[in-house]
Amino acid sequence: MSHSSRPEEAGPTPQQLAAYVDGELGPADRATVDTWLGGHPDARADVDAQRRLLRQWQAAVPPGPDQAAWAGILARVEAGVAEARLHGASSRRLAGVVRFVAALGAVAAVLVLALGLAQRFAPQTPPVTPLPVATAEDVEVLSIEGADVAALVVGTPPVQGPLTLASADDVTVDKTGSDVEVAKPAEVAHGHAPPPPAPMIMFPTDPSRITAP
Amino acid sequence: MTAAAVPCPPVPSDEQLLARHAAGERAALEELFRRYRTPAYRVAFRLLGHEADALDAVQEGFVKALTHLKSFQGRSTFKTWLMRVVSNAALDLGRQRSRREFVRLDLTAPGKANGCHPAAPEDPARGLEQADLRRLLQQALHSLPEAQRHTFVLHADGDLSYREVAEVLGISIGTVMSRLYYARQRLRAYLGQRLPLDR
User: Fold this and answer.
1) Is residue A192 a contact partner of residue A133, using CB atoms and an 8 Å limit?
2) Is A125 helix (H, G, I), strand (E, B) or coil?
3) Which residues lie below 8 Å from residue B39, measured CB to CB, with a gap of 6+?
């Protein structure tokens, strides 16, 4: 260790003298202090007194335990280290479970929040306007082409209320005959179902040819 | 016929012993304990003045030092880490004890062995003198402020250099030098006429 000395006239600080006694000065500083002490007998006596104090201190070392006592301490240290590791491991496991549950809760909270936001901000499907259904009293057939007569079905409409068009995704056709075109959009009636199914009037011709009464 | 010289195995470093201990080698812990138990005990004894309490501090210090290795690794050596933990454990024990009762060092009863067992002195009279001297030095030591006492004991009994003491206490080397200087001044003043220090 090397410490800067004060100017030689001022001499070393008391702290440097203590370091000198402890052998903590570097060779250069030590030589400087040696030289300075040669001309300062009072400081030399102080250094010698410090050395005597340290010698007395070392001479009165604390009594040490015997080997059996040391063996007992070592055994307790080993047990303490093992217990601390065990406790640490179980604490880490518990902390792991807590972290897992917390993470699970966080994920659930995020999902709930996301679903709520999605429902709130999702584009709303426009309301479906039911198609009005004309009854037999609403129309009067004034004329019909001869070729279309076979397609004219006369009877009571199957529904009394307005019709709502359903898309192909809304219905499932379990069984079809060979004369049914499945690709056509189906018409599903919403409203009051009539008591018995009955034929309805179909107009395969141009609606402009139908006139209201 | 001459016997071939068997080379001594290299002495493992503290770091190697710690790694072997972490791998579960019991002998590594024994070696670390044997290596540092004496300076650790001396520091604890000087700070507490009582063998059983000092052993408690040593035990607690070793356990804490070994189970909190992450707290020191890379910043100090195991030796300074251990001394820090042991000396702090001793100071804590001393504070707890002083709350329960005034430190019972039997400092006023010369010749009484204070519950300790001097290391088999060859001459009983010399052992008695040592016990008296030790009690006198303990008295002087406990007249110091805690910071000076801690610093002085780490250096004088823990076999730590100025740099190591600074590392243990987290202070500068200049502060170590200053504390040691004033601690010695106080010790000399306290011992005064009791010991022939100035003659």
Assistant:
1) no
2) coil
3) B83, B157, B158, B159
To test the contact with chain B by mutation, choose from A42, A54, A66, A77 the residue with the greatest count of B C-beta atoms within 10 A, namely: A77
* Mean pLDDT in residue range A150-159: 69
Give whole-number Cα distances, A186 to A73, A173, A177, A182, in Å. Answer: 90, 10, 15, 8
Query: What is the SS3 assignment for A65-79?
Result: CCHHHHHHHHHHHHH
Rounded Cα gap, residues A181 and A201, in angstroms: 19
Map residue A190 onto helix, strand or coil: coil
pLDDT per residue as tens digits for the range B78-123: 999 999 999 999 999 988 887 665 444 444 444 333 334 444 444 5
Q: H helices within B49-110, ranges in order? A: 51-67, 78-100
The tokens describing B66, both together, are 């070994």
CB contact under 8 A, A59 and B178: no
Residue B38 has pLDDT above 50, yes or no: yes
Complex-level ipTM:
0.78
Q: Which residues contact A45 (CB under 8 A, 6 or more apart)?
A: B198
From chain B, the residues in CB contact with A49 under 8 A are: 188, 197-198
